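Intended use. Records such as the Polyamine ABC transporter ATP-binding protein entry shown here are meant for training and evaluating sequence-to-structure methods. They are not intended to support clinical decisions.
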Amino acid sequence: MSGAVPPLEVCDLACGYEGQAVLENLNFSVRAGEAFFIIGGSGCGKSTLLRNLIGLVQPLAGAVRFFGESLGSNDLECLRRRSRSFGVLYQSSALWSSLTLRENVALPLREYSRLSPREINELATLKLSQVGLCGFEDYYPSEISGGMKKRAGLARALALDPPIAFLDEPSAGLDPITARKLDELMLQIRDLFGTTLVVISHELGSIFRVADRLILLHPAARGIIAEGPPAELAGASSDPRVREFLQQAPITS
């Protein structure tokens, strides 16, 4: 399968705001079915890169390709096709407070599928069950814990069975036990459904438990300073910045 087109490929990407680059000359690809982490300390550009990858911000230069296709166009059909190729779990979960968990998960199904209302209801219930929220379908976001909100957001991200899921700081704000359970859930999704995971994180526990490979961003370099399996980089990198990040506590603001 070495000749297979990668689910996600980033080519000579520069991204930033108002013409000012935060990151430059980014080149990496994500393999099918792997958990790929984008890591780094505060201010390194992780969130900026994510916004470019999912199309919320247009790159200053370069291209983002999904399965070999560059979807940088503003054409509505092109953007709609891109939206079906991935799901997103936002850091805040971004659940609609006025909707139940089932209604939140049903939103992308109503927008992008031709299923009947009954089928949408059944599939939304199934997705919540897959993330351990069976019995909570009719709860509102205000009635559940932070970890449960993350799970519900993940169920919504996976509602359309996308080949790629982007997860933005999934463990942020969670206690260690809840964070570990969420890590186990991510691994189950990768292994059972073959979903390619692209995870933004600075949590060392999650990085070493879940990541197959990673890229490490650094603000001074305005780009990638390391790429590879986390354990291998922690033990063998000649760059002191890489060893400092991976061998000690996570860098925070």
